[in-house]
UniProtKB/TrEMBL annotation, chain A:
Subcellular location: Cytoplasm; Nucleus
SUPFAM superfamilies recorded: N-terminal nucleophile aminohydrolases (Ntn hydrolases)
Keyword Protease in record: no
Alphabetically ordered keywords of this record: Cytoplasm, Nucleus, Proteasome
Protein's UniProt name: Proteasome subunit beta
InterPro entries xref list: Ntn_hydrolases_N, Proteasome_beta4, Proteasome_bsu_CS, Proteasome_sua/b, Proteasome_suB-type
GO CC annotation terms, alphabetical: proteasome complex
Organism: Durusdinium trenchii
Functional note: Non-catalytic component of the proteasome.
Automatic annotation (TrEMBL), chain B:
Subunit and interaction comment: Component of the proteasome complex.
Predominant subcellular localization, coarse grouping: cytoplasm
Gene3D superfamilies: Glutamine Phosphoribosylpyrophosphate, subunit 1, domain 1 (3.60.20.10)
Stated role: Component of the proteasome, a multicatalytic proteinase complex which is characterized by its ability to cleave peptides with Arg, Phe, Tyr, Leu, and Glu adjacent to the leaving group at neutral or slightly basic pH. The proteasome has an ATP-dependent proteolytic activity.
Compartment(s): Cytoplasm; Nucleus
Keywords: Cytoplasm, Nucleus, Proteasome
Family: Belongs to the peptidase T1B family.
A Pfam family hit: Proteasome
Name assigned to this protein: Proteasome subunit beta
Domain of life: Eukaryota
Lineage of producing organism: Eukaryota, Sar, Alveolata, Dinophyceae, Suessiales
Keyword Hydrolase: no
GO cellular component annotations of the record: proteasome complex
Species this protein is from: Durusdinium trenchii
InterPro entries, sorted: Ntn_hydrolases_N, Proteasome_bsu_CS, Proteasome_sua/b, Proteasome_suB-type
Automatic annotation (TrEMBL), chain C:
Family membership noted in the UniProt record: Belongs to the peptidase T1A family.
Organism of this sequence: Durusdinium trenchii
Pfam families per record: Proteasome, Proteasome_A_N
Protein known as: Proteasome alpha-type subunits domain-containing protein
Compartmental location: Cytoplasm; Nucleus
Length: 240, 219, 259
């Protein structure tokens, strides 16, 4: 539009996501907290980008995992990087921890929803700063925020949470926690069409924040349930 | 043929939950569950709805969690500002009025919260205030808000106000009211899917604020 | 004459005059151990009929300031600092970093030394606070300078307190709270002239850790009773500024410098 002109249409914001990520799993364990997500970015029902990292190291002690609109996730990641740089520039040895970052993200999400211009995400913010207790918080596009011992976003809320409720313990070892997160994402991969068979696992233990290399998931499709020719059988009891 | 449905993003959510407040002569009892849900999903089983504002005043908010978080943060900041200016904590009556204007300030994009403000006032009497989302308020002997409020209110009408009772019973003392609150929330947990998990009970009297917790059903 | 014009000697005199305003206030001092910071102030009452002027302002649970100079300017800065702390809590759900807030206050002060339509603040602050790196004590000046200290005293007659603090500061680090308060009052006691002494009315002691606390009269009285006997002190070595005549109870002060 030429300078000085304006549209007669009302201003519009994005109110539905375009390129999306699916489940994020987060849980505390004995020495810290872990976060896991698959590597797929979907474009509607198309598996569009299959090598995306949906975990993001923020500052020195914090990990952010994002489901929902990927561009909004990347935008917020960049904003958080700038904030982390501020900590460095002050040269006073003080760095924000997961408590500060999760609260900040919560305010950002709430303010954006209040302007009817939401960041269309479900975030899990986890971390552990030195000897402080591990921190895990869920934040979504409406600003809903709460702390928990374990959490799952997206389809994981339905497929992963039951497994977490059955198996999560506060004194889990890192390997046990990783195995449980992997199990949740595996179940998601079998049943969620927007999930994928490659995942990242991030670990915060107070001294370091590590995001793993992509890990392939085991999957086996030879079960009767997947191979039986239900339609040809004309089986009225078929539920698959 | 069904017409196409446009899914619109909504800035509002209903996170459920129930809270209640009962005023006594020189004390007040506040109770609320700790379930945070959205639709048929339980987000978390342990998320407090109650925030302490001063040494003798608390607020309990049901409705939308993110609005409640924001409102509570705002109120807490206002408490500090008042203390800096006046060198004492605001009275329950002052907070009650301020909450009303705070809510009405957002009349055309309201906080989707249903608040119960409780405390002991300057005369040492128990005070309970009830609000709607846009700041209408009333000081009442007892009240409730949230997803199970209709269930709670009928019991409080009978047990506290003794409405429509055919047999006269003595009015409840402090311990009796606390027990009533527990019973009511347990019963509401049976019938309202958005209420359950755990409950917090705050007793505010001359000695200060004490908090007890007890279990509701996790189903 | 505006406040940003260079003198031929390469100085900005208005800023230096503002620094002098700090010395016209009554003394305030601070000292820290590895767990606490203590602020001690000596207050003046404008007249027999007036209350003592407040010298220590709580900023947040973990932070307080002691001021010397123009109380009105100090209140502006206190309001600013309180607001910053509240905003920080609102956004980050945590207490504000002391050093960074001091830097912000210093930046604010500096801007007033570089704009012809403004005047520098006429107040010096001792900022005491605790954050993730432990207790801190800072001084800010009207010039926009700021410094961190183990212990510091500012304001009129503060030199003698500083001398005391310099002599004893190595003990402060490991001192317990009672010892720290005792040192603070002892140092403040050195600033009083021969015709006045510390009382619970004219003295404030604030203790800052995670929580802010002012000593009650009873608590303070115990410390005051335990103070060393004062010898006849030598005269103040600082030259008394001309404007100090405003201190006389019947002379109308052009500006309230009683803080």
């Amino acid at each position: 539009m030429a300078p000085g002109q304006y549209s007669t249409d009302p201003k519009q914001h994005t109110l539905s996501p375009i390129v999306t990520g699916a489940t994020v799993i987060g849980m505390k364990y004995k020495d810290g907290v872990i976060l896991a997500a698959d590597t797929l970015a979907s474009y509607g029902s198309e598996a569009r980008y299959k090598d995306v990292c949906r975990l993001k190291k923020v500052g020195e002690y914090t990990l952010l995992g994002g489901g929902g609109e990927l561009s909004d996730f990347q935008y917020l990641s960049d904003q958080l990087d700038e904030m982390a740089d501020e900590d460095w520039l002050n040269e006073d040895g003080c760095f924000m921890g997961p408590k500060e970052y999760s609260s900040y993200i919560g305010r950002v999400m709430y303010n954006r929803r209040s302007k009817f211009n939401p960041l269309y995400n479900q975030f899990v913010v986890v971390g552990k700063k030195k000897d402080e207790p591990a921190h895990l918080m869920y934040v979504d596009h409406q600003g809903t925020a709460f702390e928990e011992n374990f959490v799952a976003t997206g389809f994981g809320m339905h497929l992963g949470i039951p497994l977490l409720r059955n198996s999560w313990r506060a004194d889990m070892s890192l390997d046990e926690a990783k195995a449980l997160a992997t199990k949740c994402l595996e179940v998601c991969f079998y049943r969620d069409c927007r999930a994928y068979c490659k995942i990242h696992i991030g670990v915060c233990n107070g001294t370091s924040v590590d995001i793993s290399a992509p890990i392939p998931l085991n999957h086996f499709w030879g079960h009767g349930a997947w191979t039986e020719k239900r339609l040809e059988d004309d089986d009225p009891t078929a539920t698959w | 043929m069904q017409a196409p449905v446009e899914q619109r993003w909504s800035p509002y959510a209903d996170n459920g939950g129930t809270c209640m407040g009962v005023a006594g002569e020189d004390f007040v009892v506040v109770a609320a569950d700790t379930r945070l849900s959205q639709g048929y999903s339980i987000h978390t089983r342990n998320c407090s709805k109650v925030t302490q504002l001063t040494d003798k005043c608390v607020i309990a908010s049901c409705g939308m969690k993110s609005d409640a978080i924001t409102l509570h943060k705002h109120l807490k900041a206002r408490m500090v500002m008042y203390e800096h200016q006046h060198r004492r904590q605001p009275s329950v009556t002052a907070i009650a009025q301020m909450l009303s204007t705070t809510l009405y300030y957002k009349r055309f994009f309201p906080y989707y919260t249903f608040n119960v403000l409780c405390g002991v006032d300057d005369e040492g009497k128990g005070a309970v205030y009830n609000y709607d989302a846009i700041g209408n308020m009333e000081r009442v002997p007892y009240t409730t808000s949230g997803s199970g409020s209709a269930l709670v209110m009928s019991v409080l009408d009978a047990q506290i106000a003794k409405s429509n009772q055919t047999i006269a019973t003595p009015s409840l003392d402090k311990a009796g009211i606390v027990e009533l609150c527990k019973d009511v929330l347990s019963s509401v947990g049976e019938r309202d899917i958005h209420t359950g998990d755990y409950a917090e009970i705050f007793l505010i009297d001359a000695a200060g604020i004490s908090k007890t917790e007890f279990d509701l059903k996790l189903d | 004459m505006d406040c940003i014009t260079w003198s031929p000697a390469g100085r900005i005199l208005q800023v230096e005059y503002a620094m002098e305003a700090v010395k016209q206030g009554t003394p305030v001092l601070g000292l820290r151990s590895k767990t606490h910071v203590v602020l001690v102030s000596f207050k003046r009452a404008q007249s027999e009929l007036a209350n003592h002027q407040q010298k220590i302002f709580k900023v947040d649970d973990h932070m307080a300031i002691g001021i010397s100079g123009l109380t009105a300017d100090a209140r502006v800065l206190a309001d600013y600092m309180r607001n910053e702390c509240l905003n920080h809590r609102y956004v980050f759900d945590s207490a504000m970093n002391v050093g960074r807030l001091v830097a912000q206050v210093a930046d604010k002060s500096q801007q007033k030394t570089q704009n012809s339509s403004k005047r520098p603040y006429g107040v010096g602050l001792l900022v005491a606070g605790c954050d993730e790196k432990g207790p801190h004590l800072f001084e800010t000046c009207p010039s926009g300078n700021y410094f961190e200290y183990y212990a510091m005293a500012i304001g009129g007659r503060s030199t003698s307190a500083k001398t005391y603090l310099e002599k004893h500061f190595e003990e402060f680090e490991s001192a317990d709270l009672d010892a720290l308060i005792k040192h603070g009052l002892e140092a403040m006691n050195k600033t009083t002239s021969s015709d006045q002494s510390l009382t619970t009315k004219n003295t404030t002691v604030a203790v800052i850790s995670d929580k802010y606390r002012e000593l009650s009269s009873e608590e303070m009285q115990k410390f005051i009773d335990g103070l060393e006997k004062k010898e006849d002190e030598p005269m103040e070595d600082e030259p008394a500024p001309a404007a100090a005549s405003g201190d006389a109870p019947d002379a109308p002060a052009p500006m309230d410098t009683s803080g």
